[in-house]
Amino acid sequence: MATDGHANAGFRRLFAADGLTVGIGFPLTGATRSRPDIDAELRLANRAESLGFDGLWARDVPTYWPKFGDAGQTFDVWPWLSSVAAHTDDIALGTASIVLPLRHPIHVAKSAATVDRLSDGRLVLGVASGDRDPEFAAFGVDREERGAAFRERFDAIRTLWREEFPELEGEWGRLEGELEVVPSPTTETVPLLPTGNARQSRAWIAEHGDGWLFYQLPENTLESYLSDWRADAGTKPYAMAVRVALADDPTAGPEPLHQGYRAGIEWFREYFRRLEGYGVDHVVVGFENDDTERALETFADEILATL
Fold first, then answer.
1. Which helix H or strand E contains 58, and what residues bound it?
2. What are the structural domains of the chain?
3. Which position among 38, 114, 127, 226 has the lowest Cβ density within 10 Å, counted as fewest Cβ atoms?
4. pLDDT digit string (tens) for 87-110?
5. Which pTM does this prediction carry?
């Protein structure tokens, strides 16, 4: 667990209980749509909460690069999660993940604290170094320096939340003790989960992050990653993302997808039980089914109920 000063309501929803929790990633109405239907997205978000899912995760994708294949959920993450907060009650709201080298730390600190306040402390912040190459030139950021930029901005955001009128300097700018960033979050800082390797060492992530958000891995590799993570981070949580396509045949075996599987519900039931046994704390599911509402209901009945 994070320190008490970091564990807001969203973090506790995802990580306080023993065992595995499950969230879902936007967009909920189709993995490759660049302009999802807003009413449908919000209705499905509310449905996911009522079915017992623990988190709703939005991606930070500033621009659409066709070569990469998708535009995330299209809408900017801060107003989108504010709207989701207004249409839900207590489900955690996560970012997967804010690309720190492409965003000014003052903007991130203010926007994240605002969403955290508007949602009564439900925001958990995945943060990343970025992986869409043309965006770095578009924002005037040296792609080769994004690891250092990630560290500087990560530390700056934490300082902006913790200190009044801070004195702070980095490659992003300078504060001389005359300005304060408001509002403050509901806790000492919004929880920060570095995503992937974020061009950092695992030891750095274990020391500075409130947990680690990673991608789907082969199960033997996952076990090794978790063992190394526990050695470095103790009880800090490990979360992962996986794509799920539910086959019509409930007994169908697994077929690999990019960062996930197509399989029947019976195989997925055992797979999520294994993830729980390995010590994974939270899984962000990206559904690949055309009828997402039916997939949500099937998953809730057949898997959430067994965890």
1. strand 55-58
2. 9-243 (3.20.20.30)
3. 38
4. 999 999 999 999 999 999 999 999
5. 0.96
